[in-house]
Amino acid sequence: MSWDSFVWFALTAVLLWAAGAFFAWKERKPLVYACTLTGIALFFAFILGMWISLERPPLRTMGETRLWYSFFLPVAGIIVYSRWRYKWILSFSTLLSFVFICVNLFKPGIHSKSLMPALQSPWFAPHVIVYMFSYALLGAATVMAVYMLIRKGKTTEKEINLTDNLVYVGLAFLTFGMLFGALWAKEAWGTYWAWDPKETWAAATWLCYLVYMHLRKAKPGEWQTACVILLVSFVCLQICWWGVNRIGEEKQVVRWMIGLFCRRKHHGKRLCPDCSALASYCDSRLEHCRFGNEKPTCKKCPVHCYSPDMREKIRAVMRYSGPRMIFHHPFAAIRHLVR
């Protein structure tokens, strides 16, 4: 199984999920389950095929984690539909899953068989898979919170209870994900918790959802305040997932620097073949960095992983683009200097 097959599996699955969502509005339950579950099985078949072909769980890159999120959204949707019969939940899960699928189609990333040493722990796969399922449930709870805040006085007790249940189950899985992450960290880096930015935001996210739960128990009548806390919690979750991604940031900064260098030295609007090859090489080195999101700057790194010729090329890029980054990408330049 290769990534080239993704478009056919993904679009077929989306069509089946969309059909399931349509039949949910028509109240034709057998067809809802048939279409949705067939789409889920088809999408999982692609994930399993990638797992076998890569000889590792497809969880290494952001694109691969989006793959799991796209899978778990309809799973969470069909669970909610089965339990509470909300017709709209399948439409929501299909639409959001389609968004993540489109991101993966237009930005496929690099998929290789190798894994950096830190990701070879048996705790890594359950950590990410459980997290992705919790994110899907908590995303559905956030949609419910927005829906209730818009409706205000028309909110029913059933809708409030649904939101509570989604948060309870989502937080339970989030907790298991953190525990698996701690066991993974102990095996990979020798410590259960290091308070790096990723871990700090994970703890902040967990505490925010805990505040929501305590408020709902202590003051059940203040559901609007609880919904606001739920929105803040989801923002923290997004920062933890997307915002704190050292490897992704480094790749973007390097591409900006190579772009500045190429436009000035090679006089083209797009990267020339040599600079494009250099950018791909840098991406590959960052993807395989043994330190992951804990990597230091290249200057301070004890491991020099670039080949001699590529090292000279990237040094030339940095000498030219480094001083000019402050004018083109000031925030990225300042963040890089602080590190």
- Main sheet summary: none
Low-pLDDT parts are none
The gross shape turns out to be globular
Q: Which class do the helix and strand fractions yield?
A: mainly alpha
Oligomer: single chain
Classify the helix fraction into a percent range: over 70%
The DSSP helix count reads: 13
Give the averaged pLDDT, no decimals: 87
Indicate the radius of gyration in whole angstroms: 22 Å
Q: Give the topology string: H per helix, E per strand.
A: HHHHHHHHHHHHH
Explained architecture:
With 339 residues, this protein is mainly α. The chain has 13 helices and no strands. The protein has helices at 6-25, 29-54, 62-84, 88-106, 124-151, 157-189, 197-218, 223-243, 246-265, 273-287, 308-321, 325-328, 330-338. Helix 3 packs across helix 5, helix 5 packs antiparallel against helix 8 (223-243) and helix 9 (246-265) runs antiparallel to helix 10. The longest helix is centred in the middle third of the chain and has 33 residues, at 157-189. The mean pLDDT is 87.
